[in-house]
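Figure 2 data, in text form.
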Amino acid sequence: MDLGIKDRVALVAAASKGIGFAAARELAKEGARVFLCSRDEKRASEAAQKLHDETGAAVAGIGADVTDNESMERFVNLARERAGRIDILVNNAGGPPSTTFADTDLEMFRKAFELNALSAIRLAKMVLPGMRAQKWGRIVNITSVSVKQPIDGLLLSNTVRAGLTGWAKTVSSEVAVDNVTVNNVAPGYTLTERQEELATARAAATGKPKEEMIGLWAAQVPMRRLASPEEIGAAVAFLASERASYITGVTLQVDGGWVRSLL
């Protein structure tokens, strides 16, 4: 299927590895011009070069921190200067630490909100005026299945990502008339470095081997396996495409059937 985004300009946040990198790869494979960022400029540059070598697409890697205003302004302005416009924004960021309410102070909540909600809202604030003016735009937020079915031990993620989902649903209605869509992709258990970190933390808390924790997660999924980052990236690329032009305000879980709700 031709997704209709050849030569579209895409920003992908926190994309030097994991799901962010997979999303950038899918967009590049479809012919989009991709600007990706990472806090580590060297890793961003290496990721961009790898994607260019694989796909032949124009890909730029920028050192930028999604929690820093000035850093994100530089990222957005650089893309505009080089490409003239921004058509697609993929919001992504690492997850907050695993914790319980008793062990969480207010500063941890503030940091989680900055990382997993305000980072996306900030970038959207920067790019939405241009998308609305050109009458075409796609915003895709990479969140978590925790917004549909909270996960034990992930208090911060359960709290903050749900807030971002409410924001996205509200904004999607405000901008729909301008042919701009706002959607969320909610990954389930996925084989990334982040999942390895959660497995290590859960193993330390329970006294069980990390491999057993990963196996327990897989056993909860009807498909009996964890997702690959590429499977999440494919869903992101579809929602960012012309083919998804009448889909907005949705949260699409990509979880192998883990969420048990009807909606």
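Caption note: The mean pLDDT is 95.
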